[in-house]
Amino acid sequence: MGKSMGLPGSPVPTADSFILIVEGVRVMSHEVIIETRNLTKVYRDFWGRPKVQALKALDLQVHRGEIFGLLGPNGSGKTTSIKLLLGLLFPTDGEALIFNEPTTNVAKNERIGYLPEESYLYKFLNAEETLHFYGRLFKISKAERTKRVGRLIDMVGLSGAKHRQLREYSKGMQRRIGLAQALINNPELILLDEPTSGLDPIGTSEIKTLIRELREQGKTIVLSGHLLADMQDICDRIAILHRGELKELGKVTDLLTVQDVTQIKARNLSPGAIDEIRELIRRHGGEDIAVDHPTTTLEELFLRIVQESELHPGRRKVAQDAGRADALVAGGRSKP
């Protein structure tokens, strides 16, 4: 992939804009970029009868400057959620806000970049022509388009193929140019549906690095996918959906930590000291002792939640505003 570089006109991070950097530690902004309230979508048949409930009473918030993951199996409501946020679908009930504006406000789309699960690009255009085409849709001047097109093509690693028609591109190359297209307007919010689909391990690693760099530029990224390792690597927070219901929500590190198990790590211990308590470890010359909680993997968490969802189909996750706590509810009433 090309050199790491910000987009032209990228905002300079400030405490008031999206994040604080305190002694090298990122502190999440409290500014809400996306908010859904009881967001529900029911698909109906030709006669108007309910056919599929794709999304049920979704409540969540996405803050400025974070990478937020929508995770779930096929048919869980991820793509429906993104289309509702973009205003491509209308909710059956509830509402969604982006930049504190209703999703029906089309002016918001100038501040959004979107990579769909399948990129519908013109196959007879090359990479440069494609990005210039989308740049003109945003009424970006020719001089500014030229700068952005060159930088984006280099950023996604297509400099050597920029004059080839897209019909000659592999699936992975099409994802790369699709990502560049999503960034042509220098968006504040980026919605990526399966961004690493079709990429080899090297390409996947490069795209994940690029997503992290976009976050450091202050952009808010929402990822949708089911590749658990990818989501675990880059997301700050995740929401797990199953059959249209929110099953889990929180920071990745918090969700994967096994709180009721404590592990002790030490260096340079003899085999006989392993089963001893901490004081005995010190007497045996151990060093760098760490007492913490082991973590599970996102895959294990995901499979457990799906299994529990099968056993308890009426249970869903609801984010409570007070204290930003989360609670599981059944039948619409909070459990004690």
**Biggest beta-sheet profile:** 6 strands, mixed
Order of helices and strands: EEEEEHEEEHHHEHEHEEHEHEHEEE
Q: Strands of the biggest beta sheet: in what spatial order?
A: 8-9-10-5-11-12
For the terminal residues, how far apart are their CA atoms?
Answer: 51 Å
Overall helicity: 25-40%
Shape: globular
How many whole angstroms does the radius of gyration measure? 23 Å
Task: Identify low-pLDDT runs.
Answer: 10-25, 322-336
The secondary-structure class comes to alpha/beta
Mean pLDDT: 82
Overall strand count: 17
Determine the number of helices (DSSP H or I, runs of at least 4 residues): 9
Strand content: 25-35%
Outline the structure in words.
By secondary structure, the protein is of the alpha/beta class. It has helices at residues 78-86, 127-137, 142-155, 171-183, 201-216, 228-234, 252-256, 278-283, 298-311, and strands at 19-22, 25-28, 32-44, 50-63, 67-71, 93-98, 101-102, 112-115, 189-193, 220-225, 237-242, 245-251, 263-267, 287-292, 315-319, 326-330, 333-334. The strands form five sheets. It has a six-stranded mixed β-sheet with strand order 8-9-10-5-11-12, with helices on both faces. It has a four-stranded antiparallel β-sheet with strand order 4-3-6-7, covered by helices on one side. It has a three-stranded antiparallel β-sheet with strand order 15-16-17, with no helix packed on it. Helix content is 28%, strand content 29%. The protein starts with 18 loop residues before the first strand and ends with a strand. A hairpin with a 2-residue loop joins strand 16 and strand 17. It contains nine helices and 17 strands.
